[in-house]
């Protein structure tokens, strides 16, 4: 298995992977897409730039590959040289999974993510988590309680 950044011209491959597995996730146009491959794509994720770091979305591992540390390797590779913090939103039941990937509950979020989380929480139980956040990233007015 290898984990690599997906060239922009191949973004459709990640969208196809998501659809193939019945996922409503998609490759976003504004960030980077990362994939894990073992002959074919077996996992993917998106990293979108935000103030102070990036927002991780659409982490998905093909069912036959789950429980084999594919997500861990993909996330670690994608974030290896990423500057700043990485935030994500997840269902509370997934918090232990993300804690195993070095994420912790987030208290401070960039304003764009704080407002997005507030909108999403109107219809879904979601929490914010962060990896690699320092106090220099947060500033007054850019926080939300989770």
SSE pattern:
EHEEEHEHEHE
Q: Which architecture would the CATH scheme give at its second level?
A: 3-Layer(aba) Sandwich
Output the structural class: alpha+beta
As for the number of domains, it is: 1
Q: What's the arrangement of strands in the largest beta sheet?
A: 1-2-3-4-5-7-6
CATH topology: Aminopeptidase
Which geometry do the CA atoms define? globular
Overall pLDDT level: 91
Rg estimate, integer Å: 15 Å
* Percentage of residues in DSSP E strands: 25-35%
Give the CATH class.
Answer: Alpha Beta
Q: What would your notes on this structure say?
A:
Strands 1-2-3-4-5-7-6 form a seven-stranded mixed beta sheet, sandwiched between helices. Strand 2 and strand 3 form a beta hairpin. It contains four helices and seven strands, in the order E-H-E-E-E-H-E-H-E-H-E. The protein has a single domain (2-131), classed as Aminopeptidase (3-Layer(aba) Sandwich), CATH 3.40.630. It is 24% helix and 31% strand. The termini are far apart. By secondary structure, it is α+β, with helices and mostly antiparallel strands. The protein has helices at 11-20, 70-79, 95-99, 111-120, and strands spanning 2-6, 32-38, 40-50, 53-61, 85-90, 104-105, 127-131.
């Amino acid at each position: 298995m290898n984990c690599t950044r997906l060239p922009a011209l191949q973004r459709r491959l990640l969208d196809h992977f998501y659809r193939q597995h019945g996922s409503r996730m998609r490759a976003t146009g504004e960030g980077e897409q990362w994939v894990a491959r073992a002959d074919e794509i077996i996992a993917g994720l998106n990293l979108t730039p935000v103030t102070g770091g990036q927002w991780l979305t659409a982490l998905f591992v093909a069912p036959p590959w789950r429980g084999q540390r594919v997500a861990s390797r993909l996330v670690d590779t994608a974030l290896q040289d990423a500057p700043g913090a990485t935030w994500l939103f997840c269902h509370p039941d997934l918090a232990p999974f993300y804690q195993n990937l070095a994420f912790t509950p987030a208290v401070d979020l960039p304003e764009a993510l704080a407002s997005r989380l507030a909108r999403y929480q109107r219809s879904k139980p979601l929490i914010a988590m962060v990896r690699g956040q320092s106090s220099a990233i947060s500033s007054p007015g850019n926080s939300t309680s989770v």
